[in-house]
Amino acid sequence: MYPPTWPALGTTQSQALADDWKIFTYAALAVALLVWGLIAFAALRFRRTARNAQPRSQRDTNGPLEIAWTVAPLVLVIVLFGVTYHIENDVERLAPNAPVQIAVNAYRWGWTFRYLHGPTINGNLNAPPEMVLPLGQTTEITVSSSDVIHSFWIPDMLFKRDAIPGRVSSFDLTPSKPGTFLGRCGEFCGLGHATMAFRVRIVSPSEYQHWLAYEATQ
Amino acid sequence: MSAAALPRVTAPERHDILSWITTTDHKRIGILYMGTTMLFMLVAGLLAMAIRTQLARPGETLIDAHTYNQIFTLHGTAMIFLVIAPFALGLANYLIPLQIGAPDMAFPRLNATSYWMFLFGGLIVFGGAATNEGAAAAGWTSYVPLSEISISSGLGQDFWIVGLAMVSVASIITALNFVTTAFIFRAPGMTMWRLPIFTWEMIATALLIFMAFPSLTATLLMLFVDRRLGGHVFDPAYGGSAILYQHLFWFFGHPEVYVLILPYFGVISEVISTFSGRPMFGYTGMVLAAFAIAGLSMGVWAHHMFTTGAVNNPFFSFVSFLIAVPTGIKFFNWICTMWGGAIRYTTPMLYAIGFLMNFLLGGVTGVMVASPPVDFQAQDSYFVVAHFHYTIAGGSLFALLAAVYYWWPKVFGWMLDERLGKIGFWLTFVGFNVTFMPMFFMGLFGMPRRAYTYADAGALPALNLTATVGSYLMLIAALLFVANIIVSARRRVPAGNDPWDANTLEWATTSPPPEHNFESLPPIRSARPLWDLKHPRSQAVVVKVAGAP
Amino acid sequence: MTTARGLFISSALFTGVLAIAYWIVAHEPAGTMMLGFMTAALSTVAIYMFFAERDADLYADRPDATMREAAGEHVGTFVTYSPAPFWIGLALSGLVLGLVVAPAAAGLGIVALLFLGGLLIVRSR
Ligand SMILES: [Cu+2]
Predict the structure, then answer these.
(1) What subunits make at least 3 CB pairs under 8 angstroms with C?
(2) Which of A203, B1, B200, B326 could serve as a FRET partner for A32 with CA atoms 20 to 30 Å apart?
């Protein structure tokens, strides 16, 4: 059902998030490889040997070099901030009048999904609840909590949002892949935290209508 | 005031147990501090082994959820508050007066008071485990409402609060002492811009402690009022706010992580400079970078709160990114210090290079999680566990071990065994990376931190087993370290004053130093007075540049 | 002492600017308050140092000072042993534990502490 391997990226938002992951991973690795290389080179090249018995220089400053390695990283992080700013804006934008709206309430240790004009799904540790979403339709999720802080986290969608008592917080998901994804609590909440799970099942819009009709009869 | 002659030490030296309890000598307090943190580290390390053993395979039932929650809470609390930070305070206690050519700290009695408050505070935190419902189990962050009395009714949480409050006040006192000592008690000619880098980093650390720890003390007090005196500071039902706690806590908590690293930047600078046989490259840049990090770290606290949806993510993201710049300056300066030197591969130098390698990965992944879109997945997952262990364990802990091997001969007068030390280094280095590298992937794949078990699915079991194997390698290295101390103590190879051919004043006195530290001081004309003494021909050059900042 | 003073002045300026910037960007009271408090605290030290240390002339701040010219003046002695710190630490632990556990336990603890403290003072004389 949910092989915990590379995230499946089940929403359009998660594709933007994955872009951010990629850009930052490549940037981080590039910088790390460069600096690792410099460290390794200096460490090996300048080890004390019979031929390199004495330090060859006592020079301890180099103005242009020092300015360069201050300015270059500064430019890099400003560029990275630009990237991050745009992607975060895309991901957090709330569509007006989302066709599906769900109020999520977290508690120790389970979840309640209250669909606007629809069913209420309840579940606990023994029977994780399932959230059914229509493919391609934007869903607005509003999270809150009735006891301690939890976090609504779907690893396959690269996203979590904390459920905080006394606060509500909203975000959009636009499912782009059918399938069942595991969700879990992302903020430590006590004894049941490790197994405080739920499922998200993404189905075609017609199946979603069937499901709504079926739930209405329950 | 003419600080011409500093106050003198007059009383004769004693060695009975009572003399250790009543001592106000900065060197003895330093040894007490460091020894205590070593014992606390032993406990915290064994707790970590319990965690890794439990997580070796999915569905393990060795440890139940409640015990597991206590274990990781104590592990985190102890490592942060009782090991990494106070070891640096102990080391600085020992070194600052020696490095600046002073006979003692500015406030010796206050200094001793801070040690005893730290010791008893730490014991109280651990003592919580002896209460009915066990130790605190809400994580080292103890977020409300989880840590409120309605949810965590156990006394262990209260022990945690009052114990840490004592540790917190002790840290503030010590910071005050460091700054006063470094400002006022410097030897003639030891201008601020000739201070050893370690002392500079400790001044920056002390400044951070001033700014951050009062927030911790206040937060703990508020939590205590909520729990024991019926307050509702953080209770949303009465208009309190759970988010307020996070603001207050991280306002302390983020500067705290720089309290955990800046002293060790100082250690690494001293070690690399000594064993490369070169001066610290970019001294001024190094000092300014330390203060830039300290200043910027005051403006990044809510990057721990990106997923709350309650803070201005771009502001904190941007300031967090900026910290990469001064950290980068430090890295390049360390590399240039090695460049053109004749590097001697002793155990401390190996640990220093291990530090550079590990901390770099901790640093670049730090930039990653400072990007909110990355953090939305990484927050509270094993990705951040890997990230901060690369900085605190792969970084600070490696530097701590470098410090132990480097200054041991000065403190005790005899050398640690180099061969055992090097074997220990390679075991620690390999074990560390085998333990924590898989955690980046666990986190990306969706494993939450602070979970006592996980599903038998996908790559998680294999990754976890790898991590556990790595942790046992580190355990063997820890045992080797203990063996090294025992073996070397028997052999007692005398260290002499200056076994490493070092630069700074602490190596100008005997090992161990006399109670009043120095019989005589060499002239101080640069940041490397001892090197000047050993290389008289270079003196002229040094004096010329010494006037510059 | 110019450098030391500058350290606090620039830190106060930095946190002050940070507080204002944070308020403008985030409009969030908790953080702004704390940055404001921090600025006030750093300014207090900075102002103190400005007035109290303006005339300070330390041999340590003269790049060419020698040990010889600094020697001679006797300004005091360091305390090498004191029973007070240990006693203060124990007493504080008793106090905070008493707050948490039970006043009765704290009472017993205080009697034991007084005894121990007295013993220490007598022994260390
Ligand atoms: Cu939860």
Answers:
(1) B
(2) B200
